[in-house]
Amino acid sequence: MREYRDLILPIAILTLIVTIAIYFRPLLILDETRYVSVAWEMFNSGNYFVPTLNNLPYDHKPPLLFWLINLDWHLFGVNETSIRFIPLLFSIGNIILSYKIYKEIFQDDRVGAKLLAWVIVGGVIYSFYTTLFMFDIMLSFWVLLSIYAGICAIKYDRLRDYALLAFGIGFGILAKSPVIVAHLLPLYLFASYWSSSRVKFSFYIKGLFALMAGIAIALIWAIPAAKMGGEAFAYGIFWGQYAGRAVNAFAHKHSFWWYLPWIPILLFPWILSSSFWSGLKEFTKNSLNSGEKFLIVWIVGTILIFSLISGKQIHYIAPEFLAFAIVTTRVISISKDRRYKANFLGVFFIILSTFLYTTPFIIKGYISTLIDIKANLLAATILLIYGIFLIKKEFNSKESFIKVLSLNSLILIFVIHLVAHIYLKQQNLTNFSKEILKLERRGIEVAHFGKYHNQYRFLGRLKRPLTIIYSKNSINEYIKNHPNGAIITYLKRDIKYNKKAIIAVTKFRTQNALLVKAKEWNKLLLLP
Fold this sequence. Notes:
7 strands, alpha/beta, D-Maltodextrin-Binding Protein, domain 2, single chain, 22 helices, 3 domains
């Protein structure tokens, strides 16, 4: 444990960040509520092979996260709090693996290894995604495990390293998809370029066997699941979803260069310090060592691959958030700048505080109703104090400089949640979902008008699926067959409705979600 003592405090700060997010934020619509509902259906059905969404096979994601949620529920009971720490556990693993990778590729850089965890936690994007209940931080763990195993396989050529590589690939596929291969491919193909050890031909052969073994691990689930889930489900998990995203995205389609503007954000806040630019100058003017070549291949190769893929989201390159943190640590570590100042970052926080101070007085309309003036003033004051401190402070060591700057994630994430707390509270669908449960227990049929993402299933602990209606003609047919039923629909906030026609109403993003009595459906809208 003494080896990892430098990681303890940064991990504690990251844990505090996640706790703040859980305190302020309900499960987010639509992704988080969807994934937990899939796990809830798995819990109720006892079918751990075929994930379902509203009782239909769900082929968009593999089952590992859903398995972990169910494991949590079997250990701690069904709840929505303990499961939200699952990404944090993987994030802690990411910090440990990044630390081990850094020590392998920069064996002479003890200072950098000691500070890496602080740089990771100081990355706002990475810390923010650790608070989200999604797949990407978990996938990052398996990517880093596979990368670490590959480095060790080249250096030591041990069977256990190839076994670990297979294990990482297999569980990476089960975590999100075969996309894990895209994160590993550049490092594997260009190993002879970046490795300080001679790369034997046997590494490629054994690596290929490790890949096949990893695929075999995933197939232990996929083959029986495909047989149980039916033809459409089998097509989705083996080909449809991944081909659709890669070639002609049905969602999140962006231009080839879409990831490039994100790079400065991934380097925040370090990009606003003179030490970063001084170190970057050293990084570029000197001959690259093997560790620096490794990082360039990892970042450039992976971003190029994901730029060629049609569907793009910033969290698709979540494992590379850690690569940017390692690069940043290395750059600052080799910096010859001895004036550790962060004036530009201080100015950034002061500008941000000024914006928050003035926001309540310049914003009108619907958004103004979401502003808590006291919370805004507190958030602005926190940013102002931190900004002034950064401008005035000249740090006497690289270590204290990085530690203080890394606190920006804690401050920003707390401030964001504090400012948005009214809106976040409104997005809690629990009470609305429980109204649906009351109808279910009375045997009353409930329908959903329009595409349904299963957002009410877990929050209401619903046992039955909702009927999905896509057209007005189908609504009339539904009302005829279920006159005592109910229909969920959505209206813009400025549209007036007949309160006598509804059972419950809640805020839903920028709309209202309404649970409407079927027999009163045609009387829902009030005439102007």
